[in-house]
Amino acid sequence: MKINKGYIILGLMIALTLLFELAAHAESLDPTTKLTFSEPIQIPGEVLPAGTYLFRLANADSGQHIVQIFNADGTVPYATVLTIATERPYPTGDTAVTLAEQGTGNPDVLLKWFYPGRVTGNEFVYSKQKEKELAQDKQQTIVADQRKEPNFDITGAGD
Known about the structure:
alpha+beta, 2 helices, globular
């Protein structure tokens, strides 16, 4: 059987192209965002004090929506919370979060987190009663401009 060298070279070129394409998108399989809150923020089950946190999907390539929240350098876990997939009409080039403002004296509530460039994000799951309350609250989506700051600084929905 005679194999043409041209076919072998073409096959190698295609294989290398696919390999480089996978390597280029490997980072997108690990969506991680550093968020800085200047005020306390409520997540399901607890309130995080003002500070910088690392948000990451627990197993990004599994299709599950479990978000892990760590300290700024990712060494101390603070929470692991269940989320559900949520959609937005169009992606943005930067991280976006949706907050609910609960009123004076209460921390804003983190409702959604979208990784840059994606239309599918993570909606945090609260109790049915809490969801009813949050539906009445003013909600605001904030998009980070990561070209200005390396972290996403959130000063609160009411600011």
